[in-house]
Each structure stands twice: as C-alpha cells, then as structure tokens.
Amino acid sequence: MKTELIKFAGDVPGNEIELRVLRFSGSDEQAASAYLQSSLHGGELPGQAALHFLVPMLQKAADEGRIKGNITLVPQANPVASNQWQAYQHQGRFDTFSAVNFNRAFPLLPDFDTSDLPQPDAPEALIKRLKAALLRLALPHDIVLDLHCDDESENYLYIAEDFVEDMKDLAVALNCTAILAWDTTADAAFEEACAHPVLQIPADKRNMKRRAVTTVEFRGLSDVYAEQGAEDAAGLYKFLVHRGVVEDASVQLNLDYQGLVTPLTHVEMIRAPQGGMVFFHVKPGDVVSEGAKLATIVTLPGNPEGDIVLTAPQAGRILTRRSLRYLRRGDDVLKLLGDKPSAVIKRAGALEA
Ligand SMILES: [Zn+2]
C-alpha cells in the first residue's frame, strides 16, 4: 500500500490541510478498479470504521498477490468538515463559511476529463479545490463508493436508476434493506458528480455490469463499533471480490437481494408541522400500515391538547428517524418508504438539506 498526502493551502495563511490517500496497485489491467471514501460529512464515522478494518484485509490480499484492480481509499475525505466544531458540538454537514452542505455543488462534468478542475494550489476557495481533488481521485475508477450514514437508520443505498439493476450485489453484500433510486438531480452530490459522466455515455456503451456508483448510508451516526466496522469491512471486501477487484476463492456472494427498491418519489419525508419535543412510536425497520401513529410532537408541555400526532400517509417501511428529540417547525422527522408516489412531497433534488 502506498500512502499519498495531498496538501492544500488554506484560504488564509497558516491553515494548510492535507488529504490522506491510500492506494493499492492492481496486477490485472482488465480488472475493475475501486474508489472508496468516507466521512465527507466529517463526523459520519461508520464508513470510516469500515475502512479502518478493510485496509488490513486489503493489505493481506496485497501481500498474497491477490489485488487485481487498482484500489484508492480516502478514509477522511473532508479535513475541513472534520475540524468544524462550535461550542463543543461537531458541525460536519455544512460548510460554516457558506452554509452549503459539503455533499452538494460538486462539478458535473460532461466526461471523465478532470483537467479543467482546480488543482490543490489553484487560486480558488479551499472547498472547491478539495471537491475537485476528490472527484479527480474518484473518476478514473469503475466503482465509486461514498460512505456516509444517516441519523438513526437502517443500512441503505442511494443509486441512480440506471445503475440499480447491476448494483444489487452491493446491497446484498452490505445487508441493505433498501435502495433509494434517483433519476433527477441530487443537487450535485458527490455520487451524482461521479455518475454524471457515466450517464452521458450512450446506454449500449456504458458497461454497467462493471460500474458501481453510490452513496452508502451505513446506519446511524452513533452506530460506531469495532465489531460493526469489521462486519461492514467484510461486506465491502465481499463486494470487491465479487466484482473481481480482489481475488479470494473463499468468498462467495449470494445475489438474491430481498430488500426494497424505492424511487425517491415514493419516499415520504415526514416533517414537523410545529416545533417541540417528539415521542416516536416507530423505529427504523418497522413496517406500518396507512394511518399508523408514527410520532407525537408535544408543543405545549403539560397540556395534551397541544400534542400533534403524525400518522403514516401510506403503508410502508420506516427507514430512518432523527436522533435529536427536539424539533423545529418544518424539520425532517423520519423517512417512510411507500409502495406508491407520495401525495404530499413534490421534489426534484436531494431529499434533505
Ligand atoms: Zn453524509
């Protein structure tokens, strides 16, 4: 394994950051290559835990001459987000300078040519240079896995619709219960920026069986345990073996995906009509019928007349819920995966801010 440090001058003097890139060289030029990054949102650690345990597995494979395709890993993809704290709280989702979500506004390139993107020393804002560097690292690979997590959640994947059929192997390998399939913009998330050049290729020339581009949501923010990390690493490893990136005759993948494939239009984002304290009546993984009680928002503590009961707009599976039990008006409360299009949510773009 080779370790590369990419250095970026800060936007003001004395604030240099560095990106740590780990590379394994493949022995077979025909083999698929893979790029895995985690913690684009700084404090989202289940994916980082998975990579922590995956790297030694890959090193063993390298020592035994079993790495077939090039593999690039960036376990801490966003040193800016990693270092954003305010009043003892970590703030990894939004750039505190611009209030822009770190996983939005990536360049959507017409092809795989990244030569026009700013270099680490370009006269551009750091976050633009960092995003350019991540895209430049990822795009040469057939497989791009961007490892995130939700708040409280099951394992699930975001996948562009055109990729879904050929990526159920990943969903099986990672024990995902759902695939959320998108076909409009995801507000230029990293995943979309990596899928975009592929989607510009005529459908009969893309070789989708070789490709995979996704945002992996590895459960919730607090689901960070050594055992779980090792299990997730084993899932990623199994997928890499299945795709021929790594050779390992002892690993087999069952290809029978039993989970849901849900278009984004069928995702009910249950929102808080008013602020207050929330009591949940359901948890991720629960299957509910239409009209089932999902949560109660207490708007007048001490007076039950102020309680607002949120119910299921259609039958479905609870995928996520928020961990903070204090809500503001309009906040996302939970995601329910329905069988039919949501009657209330009209969207083009990402599900969440
Ligand atoms: Zn994230």
UniProtKB/TrEMBL annotation:
Q: Which UniProt keywords apply?
A: Hydrolase, Metal-binding, Zinc
The yes or no answer to whether the keyword Hydrolase is present is yes
Q: Which GO terms describe its molecular function?
A: hydrolase activity, acting on ester bonds; metal ion binding
Q: Which cofactor does it need?
A: Zn(2+)
Stored InterPro entries = AstE_AspA_cat, N-alpha-Ac-DABA_deacetylase
Taking every annotated instance into account, which residue ranges of this chain make up the domain Succinylglutamate desuccinylase/Aspartoacylase catalytic? 33-180
Q: What is this protein called?
A: Succinylglutamate desuccinylase/Aspartoacylase catalytic domain-containing protein
